[in-house]
Write a structure and sequence with these properties.
- It holds the Pfam family NCTSP_N.
- InterPro entries: DUF2460, NCTSP_N, TIM-barrel_NCTSP.
- With 767 residues, the chain is an alpha+beta fold.
- It is 20% helix and 30% strand.
- The chain has 15 helices and 44 strands.
- The strands form 12 sheets. The chain has an 8-stranded parallel barrel with strand order 17-18-19-22-23-24-25-26, surrounded by 5 helices.
- Strand 12 and strand 13 form a beta hairpin.
- Helix 2 packs parallel to helix 3, helix 3 crosses helix 4 and helix 4 runs parallel beside helix 6.
- The relative contact order is 0.09.
Amino acid sequence: MGWWLAERRTVQETSWVKRFDARFWTVNFPRPMMASVVTTAPDAIRVDAVFYGRDTLAGLIWDAEDRHDHVLLAYETARDFRACRLQFRWRSGGILPLDAVNGPTLTIEGRDAAGQARAWYVRLWNYARGTPEDAEVEIDFAAVDGGFLLPGEADPVWAGDVDRMFVSLAPPGYGGTGALPAPVAGWAELSGIRCDGAGSVIALGDVLVPPHGLSMATGYDDLYHVTPARLVRNIVGLGYRGAINHYVGMSHYFRLDGAGKAGAADGALNEPCRRWHQALAAAAIEAGLELILSLSFELLDSHCPEGWKQRAADGAPALTGWEPPSTLLSPANGEAKAYLQAVGRAFAAIAREAGMPVRFQVGEPWWWVTRDRRICLYDDAARAALGPDMPVIADVAAVTGPQEKALLDRAGAVLAGATAALVAAVRAEAPGAEALLLAYLPSILDERAPEVRRANVPVGWAWPAFDVLQLEDYDWVTAGDTGATARGVAAATARLGYPVETQHYLAGFVLRPEERAQWALIDAAAVAAKRRGTGPVFIWALPQVIRDGFVHFGEGEADVQAFDDVAFPIEIGREAVVRPGFSTAVVTVAGGHEQRNADWADARTDYDVGPGVRSQADMELLLRFFRARMGAARGFRLRDPFDHSSAGMTGVPGAADQLLGTGDGIATRFRLVKHYGGGPDVPARIISRPEVASVRVSVGGQAASGWRVEPGGWVAFDQPPANGAAVRAGFLFDVPVRFAEDRLEVQRTTFGAGEAVSVPLIEVKEA
């Protein structure tokens, strides 16, 4: 397998799309209002919104530059709209109508003919035929005017350099400040969307990465503004199949009561959220995908009722590090549990009504532990449930006494009871629903605080309390701590007893664009999870995949150079002719001076093993091996007779032969390399095919234990080497090669005449 961070589209497949295609509109709005946009037909969209303030409006947006699709699937940037004519039918309800002051207005942002930034405000009613809530609208961007009353207030639009356009949607009572008397729900629909003219067609990335065996994770809080059809198009186009692991979020799904808190009596989900998830279910079914709907015990702090929050012993609420912060709901609070059950039932009903299997995940339920390691067990409901004489645990890393351990055990039982009740509520709505549990290993299995697992990995979760155990550990992955991953997975499996085939794994995520190099570690973690037999493996998450251009390839792409882990017959290969080579561009400039550019960081070696073929038996052995490799199609191992050891070229390896790196107290994986001298600017040779039994490792000058050799030539430690400790290794190794040609020519007369056949091989560079 392999991966790529695409920065632009080059030779990849491209098709064409009409501007204003229904799939590519977005919405934006200020919080706490909520809005969503969905496709209702190939040429139709619907916007739903709920307004709480007099000064809030939603924008229905078309961007000239596509910032919401993967670079290989995005439409081209085209800012000149003058050769476009847009038509659609407008219908609306619950918002200001077309003829009202502050009614729907098309704002066009860009630059005028002189290049000066400005905006124009096009009143849609001036270009409509029909009623204020049901009209045909037609706009010719070569001859359109801003202004409220035309022609007296006409402000001619120059649509030759546009950044974006958006239609504003405002509630009745818009204007001024403060809250509306009651929440206002509104909607608008654009149907029969049509764009004509010489500039109406733009290029569209249309790649279809072959399915590679991985699935995708998403989150509503990051994708609420795009259409579900657009989201699913990216997932399928990038080769992800199976189920979408979809986190319903903690900040955008809920209805608000009059105090601005979650838990409104008239339903758990706001209407924009409900419509969006209905459309997501429909789009997933159409694409042959399923949904795993994930609900956590987390809510945006500003919208969470105070009594629902977990609290530390000093009364401080459990707050995450996000900005603005979220908080954790107490598993002991009856109102909070009832609320989560109502939310779970509502999402289960969406999946059930869509006709898809109901798969429901309880996402990362835990008692929050603060940065200074205080556990939040002390809200009023928890105190009542856990007993009046609760000891105060000031540091979960220092728990040693029986009373503290007993308290953590009781807290675990409360947590297990809350998750079981949530699953039961979902199954009451959708009998037979699959129940999944997502556990974040670095928090609940922190090796510095081993007793916290009593509360946060309760034995009440043991198999078969859930159908599937899902694991994620992105802090360990992005730190390169594969040893912690191995120990964490083993500990979770041992404690809860889920067979590996009933486990899922979530690999991710890259928080910031400047950290995009972490995708190498994430991809490796996903591949490692597949190799250990885990069920579905998900990449977390789609917004970061799109932002960074991440592409994963399966066996149909990067592994086209298939490899058989078998050795070329040593009795033939030991007579090989060896020719290491580089690729250097040499340019002779004026005065006879040279400019040299090395295209390769390491030599690529070719071999001729023909001299080793000296008999009928050798020829038969060679022919069998050639056919088994399908000519040049499949790689294999070759022992280079002149260079196959870390000790010199052919010596007996020792644990101090080659420096792999220096420990930092975090990293647990070090790649096997061989240095050939030449100073620090000369790259080391990557050793991808060591003889595993020959590997010897030392750390800080001492023979090391607690390590293993992983595929690709990596040494992985159970515990990270100490900061500053030199990590060294010795080993024997083979070279990955393939036959250089698809044809092999040998003759019986060759041997008798004393001639050597030619059997060329070429080194295969592995990632």
